[in-house]
Amino acid sequence: MHRMAGTRFIQWLNLLVFALVMLKTEGVDVGITFVQDAVAKGAVCLDGSPPAYHWDKGFGAGINNWLVHIEGGGWCNNVTTCRSRTKTRLGSSKLMDKEIAFSGILSRFQKFNPDFYNWNRIKVRYCDGSSFTGDVAAVNPANNLHFRGARVWRAVIEDLLSKGMKDAKNAILSGCSAGGLTSILHCDNFRSLVPVGAKVKCLADAGYFINANDVSGAQHIQEFYSQVVATHGSAKNLPSSCTSKIRPGLCFFPQNMAQQIQTPIFFVNAAYDSWQIKNILAPGVADPHGTWHGCKLNVKKCSPNQIKTMQDFRLQFLSALGKAGTSSSKGLFIDSCYAHCQTEMQETWLRDDSPVLGKTTISKAVGDWYYDRSPFQKIDCPYPCNPTCHNRIFDPQEHPEL
């Protein structure tokens, strides 16, 4: 009896160890690096703390390959919203986790990330609130806010160059959400900072935010972006090919500047991007009676009229995307999922049940495009036609703003 119980216990223990190993292989914790010497250059987070990143070093054949991935986290558009950020990791490196899990495109395991697993993989923390475009020299002592995103960008890249990226053979600038917008806005600049002989491309995941009216007809996101650009002094760090023609706030929208990007770039985006549906199409201010509340939490709870409005939004999105141009150097993976950011999570980057377009996962599409094995430009049919989608369902407790 005791022996049977002992055997069962050992079997249970083995199962537990196996489960923990599997969990560990999908995401590995990587420690934080603070760029302390950036402080002297005024390249700091909103609260004046040093910028930071996490670096999992390359190995084997990937030792001279660099993937620089920018964290997301929206933007702040005035002193009030920027001050509130200083009490979170999005405005202060003092509040950042000292370790974060790397998975998806950042994974170090060949099975989960076959094309980039052995590269130097860096996740740059986001603490400036302007997609790394701001640079206001003066600091108002009344609020002690530092609008220095562009300086942070430069300081982080210079730090990585000094740690081996100056010898890069291959390099990718990628990012998710506000980090995806960063990879669009800074794509050519990144190319200019990396060695001339390197193969350099960019990847924007959920970064193609569009200038669309909300459900009340107001230009909510356009006004918001104009305030971000004005607050952070971003105009001088946005592409001059755009700011010379139109108001700087409009150059925060990729549809107005992406065609000018010379470096090859790949856009991964949901046509029904959950952040854009929640914050551009149906922000709370445009929905005072909360008609869209349930729909924004779970797309299956949308009414036929709301689905029709979202289908119209998809068409606006595709029209805005078309303005980026059709060059074969540009990659497209536009699925019809209700999702936001699909490259950082293992389940959507590469797993047996990951979303596919043309029987191709995001991981394979990006890898084939980067290594010139084959171009990839695919746009999904309208919702709900793709059964492989991982449609997000939001917990109302975690998203009270909805």
Description of the structure:
The chain has 402 residues and is of the alpha/beta class. It has 12 helices and 12 strands. It has helices spanning 2-26, 79-85, 149-162, 178-185, 187-193, 220-232, 240-243, 274-281, 293-297, 304-322, 346-349, 362-370; strands spanning 28-34, 52-56, 65-70, 99-102, 120-124, 170-176, 199-205, 265-270, 331-335, 356-357, 360-361, 377-379. The chain has a 10-stranded mixed β-sheet, sandwiched between helices. A hairpin with a 2-residue loop joins strand 10 (356-357) and strand 11. It is globular, with a radius of gyration of 22 Å. Mean pLDDT is 94; it is low at 16-25.
Gap between N and C termini = 56 Å
Catalogue the unreliable spans.
16-25
- Number-wise, the strands total 12
- Biggest sheet: strands, sense, closure? 10 strands, mixed
Helix % is: 25-40%
